[in-house]
Design brief:
mainly alpha; globular
Amino acid sequence: MKSSETSLNQESIQEFSKEGKSESLENEQQDHKLERATMLHVDLRILPLLAAVYSFALIDRINLGAAHTAGMGVDLQLNVGARFNIATTLYFPTYMIFQLPGNILLHKIGIRNWITFAVIAWGAVAFGMGFVHSWQQLTVTRVFLGAFEACYFPAMVLLISTWQVPRIFVFFFRYKRHEVQKRLAAFYLISITASGLSPILAWALSLLDGKRNIAGWRWIFIVEGAATLLLGILCWFWIVDFPHQNKFLAPEQTAFILKRIDEDRGDAVPDELTAAKLRKYLCDWKLWAYGIMFVCTTLPAYAQAYFISIILKGMGWDSTRSLLLSAPPYGPPILTCMLFSWLSDKYKHRSSFIYVQGLMCLVGLVLTAFGGKHSVRYFGTFLTNAGNVGTIPGILAWSSNNVVSHSKRTVQSAMTVMLGGIGGILATATFRAQDAPRYLPGLAVSIGSQVLLLIIATIVLVYNWRMNKLSREGKLAGPIEGQPGFFYTL
């Protein structure tokens, strides 16, 4: 009798266990479906408009070179001395100065309000550039353009990697650490594609030369500035503000996202950025290291954006061909950047892919600088972009992965992008008019930047690896970044 009862109990236990496993499997499948639906919904709401706006931020920033090729250089006498370099360079001081203050203010003003103001303001300035009549007036507009654009990119990086709200409502969303680079890359590549097409758009707009007695190069600024103004209006209606104000996520989706964040990093609750914290973060050498690496990536990017059509014209092509041939080098990065970003997220690793792309950029710059034939030098611009474009989201993802707490990420994202402005200053200052048509000094500085990038990346990698090793062995005084279970991404 007892043997029969025992057998029945064992069968009941086994049956109950099977039911439990089946229910657990069903719950996991439901969670997976909810995760996919939620992340797709968030991606579609956040990424497309942000990328479109950043596309025109880049276009409004770099269309100076195309306008110069289309006739502005002659009309405004920008070929005299260093006038073109001055007008180009003075965009960057205000662009750098307003990065961190902008990221701090957006929490008080609201991301939607802040972005809408910034986009409409720089759109108005870009539109007004079509009506300047001297290089001095052009320079003033560039100063204001830098000030208003400064607030956008770090806010967008922050919004993609974090979603912060006032402390009164504790809702906070962030992609998991190793999902970030694919999204940053997709966001950035949409922008790069648009900026790559910018010379073709500029050429098309320059064909309006004489319409309404307006020069072709002026139409470039007028039409592209008007497009930015339209996007600014769309931002008011579409940009998501803090999560407690969102109307596009269901309550269970918001709850699920909060759970993901705590599982990933454990800092779902936002913390206030105080003066003491700011001083502490600014003393963290790693934030400066990531910022300097970003300088090394932005230098070749700005050099290509501002000077590729001018360099091509120096190879002997006319204005039309110089503008049209400026676009193809932006094609290969669409493939290489997404490939490396996907691999980086898949293997949860950053540095090796930054090395590979840094070396590609280095080889491309060497070919552009010292290649004997024009065809070889032109091929160098393809290789430069294919390597350089992917390191930008790579470094942004690497730096964002290795900080904990929202307040530190606010400082980190602003600092990284702010220091990136130095790359723009170096690019516009070292590609001097007197060095045309080969621009060897500027290209030499760009080559040096890639060498420096590889050196600093190695230092950061070794440090992160050692800290992870010591933490696993229990030889550190406390957890890394003050977060138990947290390890640096290598």
